[in-house]
Amino acid sequence: MAATIDSAYPRTLHPVHAALLAFSVPLFLGAALSDFAYLSSYQVQWTNFASWLMAGGLVFCGFALLWAIVDLLRADRRGKRALLLVLLLLATWVLGFINALIHSRDAWGSMPAGLILSAIVAGLILLATWIGFATFRADRTR
Question: What is the pTM of this model?
């Protein structure tokens, strides 16, 4: 009789994928806070900060999205949570790109749509990071 032994260690998120997700959070959150600071002070430099932070967030989110797609296509990582992570990261990247296009206008022209989109993108990346870190830890048994 053959005995199968399940690993005592849960499957975890790869450290590079975790870092890509973790770097995206403060960049998109910083962009939202910079937009809020512009709305409060009307100092044009805050929109410049938001644009640069958004560009950095898009880079890290894009690489995290690619990693999540590859992870989804692997046979041992398929599941609802992996698909949800890909969809959340895709929505974050697309809305972040649209937000970057809105921020390419002058400072006054990017408000209030820029602030609203920045808040939505920040919320999406927080949710995606939460799902990403909980994805493989939660399913301990097969």
Answer: 0.85
